[in-house]
Design a protein that fits this description.
The chain is about 20% helix and about 30% strand. The protein is α/β, with parallel strands linked by helices. The protein has one domain (about 1-255): Metallo-beta-lactamase, Chain A. The protein contains 7 helices and 14 strands. It is globular and about 55 Å long. It has helices at about 55-60, 80, 105-115, 115-120, 180-185, 210-220, 235-240, and strands at about 1-5, 40-45, 45-50, 70, 100-105, 130-135, 140-145, 150-155, 160-165, 170-175, 195, 225-230, 245-250, 255. Strands 6-5-4-3-2-1-14 form a 7-stranded mixed β-sheet. The chain has a 7-stranded mixed β-sheet with strand order 7-8-9-10-11-12-13. It binds zinc ion (2 copies). One zinc ion binds near residues 75, 77, 157 and 176. One zinc ion (ZN) binds near residues 157 and 176.
Length: about 260
């Protein structure tokens, strides 16, 4: 199974628009160019996408996917959902609805924001067919998609909770998290690979900063950990120099097999 980190940047991406731009990141290093966070999981004929932010079309266009078997949405913040509409063309060839999996609160949000993707209404063009359907997950759920086992955990993300994902009991993807309930934390022990938020050096109310993330990794003991959701404060090489031995900042289009 191949895991590709399509995007590894915080909500504004790097570079950001406006005066923030590259922030403290060296524009000469291509690893500092970061689109919004999403992950592609590929196994045999199965493609699963985690999150669909505003960069999603550009992130997927060179992967030549025939289709998407499922899209898992970790939470409803704009950097994780804004590109959902871009995925409509995957519906066109077979007219099979694209399955979205997420928690109930986020499902309700998506139904309001992207109502036309799920329900035909009187303002829809006559030819338009809603291309997606919603499947509600709970925290500490388990689903199996074409033999890929996916477990959900609850994560605290400031004002809201998000879902973290554990794939085939080997790989966990924990973005947009500042704290874990104990039950969640215990499920993350001794994995092969952990991809986890590491926003920047200084604390943030909704995202773990480096020292907090490093303290989790030290206790969880994954074989390898990668930081994601990095901010324009976080230059790749500078972050790498701060990382313990088995930890590295991720970068866009980095991939590994599990
Ligand atoms: Zn985010
Ligand atoms: Zn968020």
């Amino acid at each position: 199974m191949k895991i590709t980190l399509l995007g590894t940047g915080t909500s504004v991406g790097i570079p950001s628009l406006g005066q923030l731009g590259w922030g403290k990141c060296n524009p000469e290093n291509p690893k500092n160019s970061r689109q919004r966070c999403s992950v592609l999981i590929q196994s045999n004929n199965t493609n699963i996408l985690i999150d669909a932010g505003p960069d999603i079309k550009n992130q997927l266009i060179n992967h030549d996917l025939d289709g998407l078997n499922a899209i898992i949405i970790t939470h409803e913040h704009a950097d994780h959902i804004s590109g959902l509409d871009e995925l409509r063309p995957f519906y066109f060839p077979k007219k099979e609805k694209i399955n979205i999996y997420t928690i109930e609160r986020t499902a309700t949000f998506l139904l309001n924001r992207f109502d036309y993707l799920f329900k035909k209404n009187e303002k829809s063009q006559s030819y338009f067919k809603p291309p997606m359907s919603l499947n509600v997950l709970s925290y500490y759920d388990e689903i199996n998609l074409n033999g890929i086992k996916i477990k959900t955990i609850k994560q605290h993300h400031g004002a809201i909770d998000t879902i973290g994902l554990i794939i085939n009991d080997k790989f966990a993807y924990c973005t947009d998290v500042v704290d874990f309930p104990e039950d969640s934390f215990n499920k993350l022990r001794n994995l092969d690979t952990l991809v986890v938020t590491g926003l920047r050096s200084t604390p943030h109310i909704a995202h773990a900063h480096f020292d907090l993330t490093f303290s989790w990794i030290k206790e969880l003991k994954p074989k390898k950990a990668y930081l994601t959701h990095l901010s324009p404060d976080s230059d790749h090489d500078t972050v790498l120099s701060l990382c313990p031995k088995n930890v590295e900042p991720a970068y866009d289009n980095m991939f590994f097999n599990i």
